[in-house]
Amino acid sequence: MKVLQIVEQAFRATGEEQDDTILWLSRSMRAVGAELHLLLNGNAAYYAVQQGHLPPLRFGHWQQSHPANIEQDLQALIDSGVTVSVVEEALVERGLAQKPSIKGLQRLPRKALASLYNSVDQVWQW
Amino acid sequence: MSTAQTLTFAFMDPPFESERTTTFFRLLEASLEAGANIKVFAYEGAVALAFSKQQAHGNSVHGRGVDEEAHPLSRQWIAALQQKAKERGLTFDWINCGLCVDERGVNEVISGCGRGSPADLWKFASAADNTLVIGTR
What we know:
The complex is a heterodimer.
Chain A: E1 2-7, H1 14-17, H2 21-30, E2 35-40, E3 58-59, E4 62-63, H3 70-79, E5 83-87, H4 88-93, E6 106-108, H5 113-118, E7 122-125
Parallel strand pairs in A: 1-2, 1-7, 2-5, 5-6
Antiparallel strand pairs in A: 3-4
Helix pairs in contact in A: 2-3
Chain B: E1 6-11, H1 19-33, E2 37-42, H2 66-69, H3 74-87, E3 92-97, H4 98-104, E4 113-116, H5 118-127, E5 130-134
Parallel strand pairs in B: 1-2, 1-5, 2-3, 3-4
Helix pairs in contact in B: 1-3
């Protein structure tokens, strides 16, 4: 079974969880053999071009030690064999199209989505 | 051998904060009504749905005490759906993401709900006829 994981919500709980929860879920499932294709759309398209770790949280004397590193997590997914794509128009709409994206990440036009949906067994829209 | 379909649900919303939670339970009930076995993977805030220490309270604005108010609790909804599944000869499996439980301190869960990991979501989805994921917004 192959599942298309669609991530549209950006930075959902990334401060508290120190990762994107669906990227983490995907890495966990990939570790037990899940066949996945991860698609970034909407505000989460920013993940495709975001570099380095997020700024650490600071409250009073408390400072976060390990802020989320979306770039690293996406690269790990790609390196583990998960195809990661971003919707090209979602980048264009946000003025991000000219920024370099993560190595190995695919840019897909919206018109390609129907065939992508048809290529998998299930579509999980997070 | 049962011919009932099996549906897997992944859900992220906590109790008492969103209409998605009520809608999610309506979908579970409708699925049981349709004769489907149910598998739930509760992720992030949804792990609190099965927290056994949820307490009903009275409501002075409503002018009702604890018993009269009969405040809804998601743990009771889960128990009711477990019972409904049992009465219909269907299965109702519920796994909470263990790390999500730990970070929220909601380790005490009602009977019939277990602890697991995303590997369980993959097992549930692989064993089901279809899967619906409902992410928080």
